[in-house]
Design goal:
The chain has four domains: about 100 residues, Cytochrome Bc1 Complex, Chain D, domain 2 (Orthogonal Bundle), CATH 1.10.760; about 90 residues, Cytochrome c-like domain (Cytochrome Bc1 Complex, Chain D, domain 2, Orthogonal Bundle), CATH 1.10.760; about 100 residues, Cytochrome Bc1 Complex, Chain D, domain 2; about 25 residues. It has 18 helices and no strands. Helix 1 crosses helix 5 and helix 8 packs across helix 11. By secondary structure, the protein is mainly alpha-helical. The two termini are about 55 Å apart. The protein binds heme C (3 copies).
């Protein structure tokens, strides 16, 4: 009697177990394709994520903050590239383009990237999100700081019209301000990335030589050929300008103001860095203290460009208490601080209200901060709950004790 009952129980358990296994298998079969697909998407996601950093480190300097192209260097956010075969794109990126500024990137062609990484770049060009890429480039502090274009000074430009062949010089100045200033600098005086063209040694070169360089560029350098962008007579106008630059007054092609790009993340980082490094002199809200002037005032922000702020913060103000931060912070940090300071501009007061009494020895600042933090409502709420709980525990304990 008891034996058959336990037998039945065994059968029941066996059936249930088998049923569960079949159910599990069924579910697995049902969900497997979706799982494989999402695993595939995860891989693509990881590759695109890697690719954005590789882009920031290797390509942004030429192809721009978000693949928009710079000067004569073509954009990569180009729908035509999304439909090009992955194979052709792979070849372009790994081998570069012969006789242009586009270098070879794959290790087998002497470049720095593995085939896997080149493939990641292909994925970026075909499926990437250029807005997200822009954020990555900015957050890594690798946004190209080159001024893209500028406007010639109207009065000086007018004056140049009356020089011999003035119209040709004017054409060239307009083109220089639109296309070349980004690398060759204001008034052609050069930048970190390209040599001065307003230079006696360059004026000595022959027109043919200069014409060839502008037309074809210099392979393997940032200097691309301009024959796809400029007409032959425009190129020869550029050569005329380069050869007669000594007749062009300084200030004709002024330095443009390139705003430093920001993201929510970079502004948050700038805020942290400001509090940690700058607030003890410039005040927690940039209103100044007896030690250092206000930064958060209209007069400073409207007259100081991002580039100028960056320069002051990087180099400090020699002979004053303002330290040079360039050798203590990464470029990304310096740019993040400028971005943070700039967002004050919209609400900056006309006249600052310097914070008096901030500063002081570090222990006093720390003490003030601790007291301020303690006054936060969350801390107060936590303390109240803690007190209430311990009070009830004590009273329960007390009642029990009295009972005994
Ligand atoms: C030194 C400047 C420079 C750098 C750095 C650079 N490129 Fe280029 N790239 C160029 C130039 C110039 C061209 C146009 C070549 C031509 O005229 O065919 C180009 C063309 C391309 C093209 C073909 C575009 C088209 O419309 O056919 C792709 C794709 C490309 N680059 C991807 C990249 C990637 C990815 C990186 C980073 C790993 C990179 N480039 C870095 C200068 C550069
Ligand atoms: C993306 C950056 C970039 C842009 C834009 C650019 N150049 Fe250049 N250019 C360079 C670099 C870098 C060199 C130096 C190449 C080398 O090392 O040989 C150079 C060299 C030159 C030279 C040769 C100077 C010499 O020493 O003989 C001339 C001429 C020149 N550029 C003219 C122009 C003109 C005109 C424009 C605009 C139509 C222009 N460049 C736009 C980067 C640029
Ligand atoms: C030890 C004190 C001190 C610290 C710390 C300090 N500064 Fe300054 N800063 C000064 C003084 C003093 C000046 C005024 C220099 C002068 O007289 O031109 C100044 C000037 C400046 C100016 C120029 C203001 C103008 O009116 O043109 C900027 C911008 C600036 N500081 C930014 C910063 C930033 C950003 C930090 C933190 C990374 C920082 N400072 C940290 C003392 C300080």
């Amino acid at each position: 009697m008891t034996e058959t009952r336990s037998h039945r129980l065994e059968i029941l358990i066996g059936t249930i177990a088998t049923g569960l296994i079949v159910l599990a298998l069924g579910l697995y079969i049902l969900f497997e394709p979706a799982r494989v697909q999402s695993a595939g998407q995860d891989i693509l996601h990881v590759q695109l994520d890697d690719a954005m950093s590789l882009y920031a480190e290797n390509c942004a300097v030429c192809h721009g903050l978000q693949g928009e192209g710079i000067g004569s260097i073509p954009p990569l956010d180009n729908p035509a590239l999304r439909t090009m075969t992955a194979d052709d794109l792979f070849k372009t990126i790994s081998r570069g383009r012969f006789n242009t500024a586009m270098p070879a990137w794959s290790q087998s062609d002497g470049g720095p990237l593995s085939d896997y990484q080149v493939n990641e770049m292909v994925q970026l060009v075909q499926f990437g999100d250029w807005n997200a890429t822009k954020d990555r480039v900015v957050n890594l502090g690798l946004a190209p700081l080159v001024p893209f274009t500028t406007e010639p000074d109207p009065a000086l430009f007018e004056q140049i019209g009356s020089l011999p062949d003035g119209a040709i010089l004017q054409t060239a100045i307009k083109i220089f301000a639109a296309e070349c200033v980004s690398c060759h600098g204001a008034d052609g005086l050069g930048t970190k990335i390209a040599p001065a063209l307003n230079d006696p040694l360059i004026r000595e070169k022959t027109a043919e030589e200069l014409n060839r360089t502008v037309t074809l560029g210099r392979a393997g350098t940032l200097m691309a050929g301009w024959n796809n962008v400029l007409a032959p007579e425009e190129i020869s106008a550029m050569v005329t300008l380069i050869q007669r630059w000594n007749e062009i007054p300084l200030g004709t092609i002024p330095a443009p103001n390139v705003p430093i790009a920001t993201t929510t993340e970079s502004i948050a980082k700038g805020s942290d860095l400001f509090i940690a490094n700058c607030s003890r002199c410039h005040g927690p809200t940039g209103q100044g203290t007896p030690r250092a002037p206000a930064l958060n005032v209209k007069s400073v922000l409207t007259t100081t460009s991002d580039q100028a702020l960056l320069q002051i913060i990087t180099n400090g103000v020699p002979g004053t208490a303002m330290p040079a931060w360039g050798n203590r912070m990464a470029d990304a940090d310096l740019q993040a601080i400028v971005g943070f300071i700039r967002q004050w501009e919209a609400t900056a007061p006309e006249v600052a209200q310097p914070t008096v009494g901030v500063g002081g020895p570090p222990w006093r600042q720390a003490a003030t901060q601790t007291v301020k933090a303690a006054l936060d409502w969350r801390v107060l709420l936590g303390l109240t709950i803690l007190l209430a709980t311990s009070f009830s525990l004590v009273s329960i304990g007390y009642t029990e004790l009295v009972k005994k």
